[in-house]
Write a structure and sequence with these properties.
Rossmann fold; ATPase_Atu1862_pred; 18 helices; 476 residues; HerA_central; ATP binding; AAA+_ATPase; alpha/beta; ATP-binding
Length: 476
């Protein structure tokens, strides 16, 4: 069944529909300079679909919090939450099918990236049972998926860019329909923008943006300058949910408005400089320092989400089950089986393990980080659960625990090969165990272990042999 809404009117005054069913499968990219009407367009889309599909809005400027007053969206203020809480909130928002506005207005740029990345990742990792359709609108998307580095840390940028890439590239099968809006296509990461199949291109003035917009719409380059002539609220539309040929649409009216209006020109009356001097440079009296007040505890966001939309039946969580070692081993094996897990940060893998543990009705604290790290290294070494309980492997674990954490994975990889009397792992395998792509750095770990009197390395023509000192283990 196809469901359509009216986005606005064409040149001839006819209604221009948007096929919501098609949009949920093909995603939407909106581009236009500041003042071109992007926020108005997004508000029109959100108002028309508020009663048809669950919505999640990533709002860096606090423009869309007013939707809560009319349509009942839950407003989450990122300034009052932690990254862990936001990640859990993203997952629970999908479970409870709650429409949410993630308000990032009160936090700095670094926290905006972390908050958006954590929340979107939580939505992305929700169990398959809760993969209902969600319209995910990200305003000012160039902030969360930048084409180049800025003033924020690399870690925050990778977190946010990874979440945006998952949303646009892998979100469709999970029911996540991305709608991203940006001021400039040149500032938006190409692997994020390229996944959209529907486009609404508004007024822009820079040549590089006009040419790229024309290319996306399949227009001839000589017509690209027409983007400068578009009025506020006018967009060129193309895509399976909109039109098979480029079509100009004037966005329709909206029922709600942002709290922050634009600048309004008011009468100006100049005053003498002497009067201004006394007003502006009046001495400032420093107030005495006040005792620091204890801040009230932040509202329990998870409790709000649990209570939200209480008419939807949700199974009550059961008492956590007891975890046997073999069950934990299988959970870590599932984490390791994910693509590129060898190069993902330990904290990310640990969060993945905690999520799987909760799905299995285990306590999320069933393993602390140190125990997870050594178990992860054991699984990566190729050791099975039956082998892990053997006395020789317990000796290998004791050796690994006596060394720095970053080389524990390398030691266990070598120990597994030596215990099995298998060929010594090559540089690629050692580099992967160390979490690097550098083969030179991998070889340096062997030299370090030899200096620590843990192993002896015997280099041969095309291979090498490694023996563990004092244990009698050696590779083939």
């Amino acid at each position: 069944m196809s469901v359509s809404i009216v986005m606005g009117r064409g040149r001839d005054g006819a209604d221009i529909p948007l096929d919501l069913t098609e949009l949920l499968s093909t995603r939407l990219l909106v581009q236009g300079n500041s003042g071109s009407g992007k926020s108005h367009l997004l508000r029109r889309l959100l108002e028309q679909t508020a009663t048809l599909v669950q919505q999640v809005i990533v709002d860096p400027e606090g423009d869309f919090v007013t939707l809560a007053e009319k349509y009942g969206h839950l407003v989450i203020d990122a300034a009052e939450q932690t990254e862990a809480t936001l990640r859990a909130a993203g997952e629970r928002a999908r479970m409870h099918r709650a429409s949410v506005v993630l308000n990032l207005e009160s936090v700095e740029a670094e926290m905006q990236l972390r908050a958006a990345g954590s929340f979107l990742n939580g939505m992305f990792e929700a169990p398959r049972t809760f993969w209902y359709p969600v319209l995910v609108v990200v305003d000012e998307a160039q902030l969360f998926a930048p084409v180049a580095g800025g003033d924020t840390s690399d870690e925050a940028r990778r977190l946010s860019l990874g979440a945006m890439t998952n949303l646009m590239c892998r979100g469709r099968k999970r029911g996540l329909a991305g709608v991203i809006a940006t001021q400039r296509l040149a500032k938006l990461a190409k692997n994020v923008a390229a996944e959209a199949s529907n486009f609404l291109m508004g007024r822009t003035f820079l040549d590089i943006d006009m040419l790229r917009a024309a290319d996306l719409l399949g227009m001839e380059r000589r017509t690209a300058e027409g983007f400068r002539d578009l009025a506020r609220g006018q967009f060129m539309a193309l895509g399976p949910a909109l039109s098979r040929r480029p079509l100009m649409v004037t966005i329709g009216e909206v029922e709600t408005a942002s709290h922050a209006g634009g600048p309004v020109l008011t009468p100006f009356e100049a005053r003498p400089a002497e009067d201004s001097y006394s007003l502006i440079l009046e001495p400032v009296v420093e107030p005495p320092p006040r005792p620091r007040e204890r801040r009230a505890a932040a509202p329990d966001l998870l409790a709000q989400l649990d209570a939200y939309n209480a008419t939807i039946p949700v199974e009550e969580p059961e008492t956590p089950c007891e975890a046997d070692p073999e069950r934990l081993w299988s959970l870590v094996e599932a984490v390791v089986s994910e693509t590129d897990s060898a190069y993902r940060p330990l904290a990310t893998l640990y969060q993945d393990f905690q999520l799987r543990a909760r799905i299995e009705k285990l306590s999320r604290d069933v393993l602390d980080l140190a125990a997870f790290r050594i178990l992860l290294a054991s699984v990566r070494s190729g050791t099975g659960y039956a082998q892990s309980v053997e006395p020789d492997w317990q000796q290998a674990l004791d050796v690994a625990r006596s060394l720095p954490e970053d080389v524990q994975g390398v030691v266990l990889l070598l120990a597994r090969a030596a215990l099995d009397h298998a060929p010594c792992p090559d540089d690629d395998a050692i580099a992967q165990a160390y979490g690097t792509h550098s083969l030179g750095r991998a070889r340096r770990q062997l030299a370090y272990l030899e200096e620590r009197q843990v192993i002896v390395v015997q280099e041969m023509a095309s291979t090498r042999r490694i023996a563990f000192i004092g244990l009698g283990w050696q590779t083939a």
